[in-house]
From TrEMBL:
CDD domains: MFS_MFSD1 (cd17340)
PANTHER family for this protein: MAJOR FACILITATOR SUPERFAMILY DOMAIN-CONTAINING PROTEIN 1
Transmembrane regions listed in the UniProt entry: 36-54, 75-97, 103-123, 130-150, 205-227, 256-283, 295-316, 323-342, 348-372, 384-404, 410-433
Source organism of this protein record: Pomacea canaliculata
Signal peptide: none
Name of the featured protein: Lysosomal dipeptide transporter MFSD1
Family per record: Belongs to the major facilitator superfamily.
Reactions the enzyme catalyzes: L-lysyl-L-lysine(out) = L-lysyl-L-lysine(in); L-alanyl-L-lysine(out) = L-alanyl-L-lysine(in); L-lysyl-glycine(out) = L-lysyl-glycine(in); L-arginyl-glycine(out) = L-arginyl-glycine(in)
Length: 462
C-alpha cells in the first residue's frame, strides 16, 4: 500500500488561486476551516476501509487456516492476488483519474471495487469457497492502490501551495491507523462472534465487519465528491491531475542509480509486508503469545510508522543524507529479523525498532527518485517502481507460504534476511555509484541547496 509514501508532488508548489482567506465559516470552501473540517477529515478516511481490510488475513491467520483447512501457501495466495493486478494498474491508475473518470468518479469507482472485493471475500468464507475468497482479494486489489492515487489527487487539489507535506503525512498516518485497528480488533471480534457461530461461518461474519468499514469509506468518497464539486462551482477551479504522464519509452534514459533504488525497494518491502502477513502464528509458536498478544506485536510496525513517518520525513527534509538513512534502515531491519530468528528476546523490542527503521527507509528512499529523474519522467519512474514492488510482493508472498509449509519459520526468517542482504548490497553499490557521479543522493540539505543555487547561476550565465 506504497502510493502514500511517494512524494513527487511535494516539491511542486503553485500560486494560491484564492485572493482572499476566509477562516471562520465551515461551509465556505475558501476558508481554511472548511479545508480541515470536513474536507481533510473525510479525505483521510477515504482509504481507511482499504487499509483495514488489506491485513484482515494477517489478523486472523491462525483461525483462518484452521477454519478453512488452508496451508500457509494457500493463505499467502490471498496476499499475492492483491498485488498481481497492481503490477499493471499502477501505470494506469493516474491516467484513468486524469483522462477517463476524473478524481470524483474515480474515487467512487475504486471504492466500489474495494467494497465489492471485501464482500466477495467475506461471502467466500461464509460459504467455505476458497476460490471465491481468491476472486474477492483480486477484485479488492484492483481498487486498493488506485484509490490511494485518487486520495493523493484530492490532496493536491485542495492543499497544493499550502500544507501539502503535512497532508501527505496525515494520510499515511491514517492509513497505518486503519491497519493497526484491524490487527487489534479482528481477533477479539472473532472470539465474540464465536459465541453464536463457529468455523468458517464465524470467520465470514467477522470479515463482513471489514466490508462495513469499506462501505464507510465509500460513503466518504460520495461525501468528498459532493464537497469537491460544490467547491469547483463556487471557486471556478480548474481540474488537477494525479501526477505526471506515464511514458514507458522513457525507461531507456533512466540511469543505473534508479535501478539500484528499485532493487532496494523490492528487496526491502518483501522482507516486511509478507512477514507481517505471516507473523501472527510465528509469534504464537515461538514466543508462546496468545492470539491477541501476537496481533498486538504484529501491529507494532504499523503503529510506529503511523507516528514516526511524518516526523522522520520532516527531519530528513531538513538534514538530507538520504542514502545514509536508507542504509541505516536496511541494516537495522536486518538486525531485527536476526533477533527474532536466533534469540528469544521479547519480540516487542524487535518490532518497535523495525517500525522505526521502516519509517526511516520509506521517508528517505522514495524522494531520492526525484533527485535523479527529470520532473517530466517522474510519473513513469514511480509507476515502474510500484510495478516492480507489487511483482516482488506477489511472488514472494507465495514463496514465503511454501517455505513455511515445507521448512518452517526459521528458514523463512533466513529467507527474509537474504533479501535484506541484497537490499544492503544494492544500497552500498548505489552509494559508490553516486559518489562517482558527484554524491548528489547523500548530500546534506544545506549542500543540496547550495548545489542547486550554483546550478541556477551557471544556467543563467549561459
Amino acid at each position: 500500500m506504497s502510493e502514500s509514501e511517494k512524494k513527487p508532488l511535494l516539491a511542486k508548489d503553485s500560486e494560491d488561486t484564492e485572493t482572499k482567506v476566509y477562516v471562520g465559516n465551515p461551509c465556505d470552501p475558501r476558508g481554511c476551516l472548511h479545508r480541515y473540517f470536513p474536507v481533510l477529515v473525510i479525505m483521510c478516511f477515504l482509504s481507511f476501509g482499504s487499509y483495514f481490510c488489506y491485513d484482515n488475513p494477517a489478523a486472523l491467520q491462525d483461525t483462518m487456516i484452521k477454519d478453512l483447512s488452508l496451508s500457509e501457501s494457500q493463505f499467502m495466495l490471498l496476499y499475492s492476488l492483491y498485488s498481481w493486478p497492481n503490477v499493471i494498474l499502477c501505470f494506469f491508475g493516474g491516467f484513468l483519474i486524469d483522462r477517463v473518470f476524473g478524481v470524483r468518479m474515480g474515487s467512487i469507482i475504486f471504492s466500489l471495487f474495494v467494497t465489492a472485493g471485501q464482500v466477495v471475500f467475506a461471502f467466500g468464507s461464509l460459504t467455505n469457497l476458497f476460490w471465491l475468497m481468491c476472486l474477492g482479494r483480486f477484485i479488492f486489489g484492483i481498487g486498493g492502490e488506485s484509490l490511494a492515487v485518487a486520495q493523493n489527487t484530492y490532496a493536491v487539489k485542495w492543499f497544493k501551495g499550502r500544507e501539502l507535506n503535512m497532508v501527505f503525512g496525515l494520510q499515511l498516518s491514517f492509513s497505518r491507523v486503519g491497519s493497526t485497528v484491524n490487527m487489534n480488533v479482528m481477533q477479539p471480534l472473532y472470539s465474540y462472534i464465536h459465541n453464536y457461530a463457529s468455523g468458517y461461518k464465524c470467520l465470514g461474519i467477522a470479515l463482513f465487519v471489514g466490508a462495513v468499514m469499506c462501505v464507510f469509506s465509500l460513503l466518504c468518497a460520495f461525501a468528498l465528491a459532493f464537497l469537491d464539486k460544490r467547491a469547483d462551482r463556487i471557486l471556478k477551479r480548474a481540474a488537477v491531475g494525479s501526477g505526471d504522464q506515464i511514458r514507458l519509452w522513457d525507461v531507456k534514459h533512466f540511469p543505473l542509480t534508479f535501478w539500484l533504488i528499485s532493487i532496494i525497494c523490492v528487496a526491502y518491502y518483501v522482507a516486511v509486508f509478507p512477514f507481517v502477513g505471516l507473523g501472527l502464528v510465528f509469534f504464537e509458536m515461538k514466543f508462546g503469545l496468545t492470539p491477541e498478544q501476537a496481533n498486538s506485536v504484529n501491529s507494532l510496525v504499523y503503529i510506529i510508522s503511523a507516528v514516526a513517518s511524518p516526523v522522520f520525513g520532516f527531519l530528513i527534509d531538513k538534514l538530507g543524507k538520504n542514502l545514509f538513512w536508507v542504509i541505516t534502515g536496511v541494516t537495522v531491519t536486518l538486525g531485527c529479523h536476526g533477533l527474532m530468528a536466533f534469540t528469544f528476546l521479547t519480540p516487542y523490542v524487535a518490532m518497535v525498532v523495525m517500525g522505526l527503521a521502516y519509517s526511516v527507509l520509506a521517508s528517505a528512499l522514495w524522494p531520492m527518485v526525484a533527485l535523479i529523474i527529470p520532473e517530466n519522467q517522474l510519473g513513469t519512474a514511480y509507476g515502474i517502481m510500484q510495478a516492480i514492488q507489487n511483482l516482488g510482493l506477489a511472488v514472494i508472498a507465495l514463496v514465503a507460504g511454501i517455505i513455511v509449509d515445507s521448512k518452517g519459520y526459521l528458514i523463512l526468517e533466513v529467507f527474509f534476511m537474504a533479501w535484506l542482504c541484497l537490499a544492503l548490497i544494492a544500497a552500498v553499490l548505489l552509494y559508490l555509484t553516486d559518489v562517482a557521479k558527484g554524491g548528489k543522493l547523500n548530500m546534506s540539505a544545506k549542500e543540496r541547496h547550495s548545489h542547486k543555487e550554483l546550478k541556477n547561476v551557471a544556467e543563467s550565465d549561459e
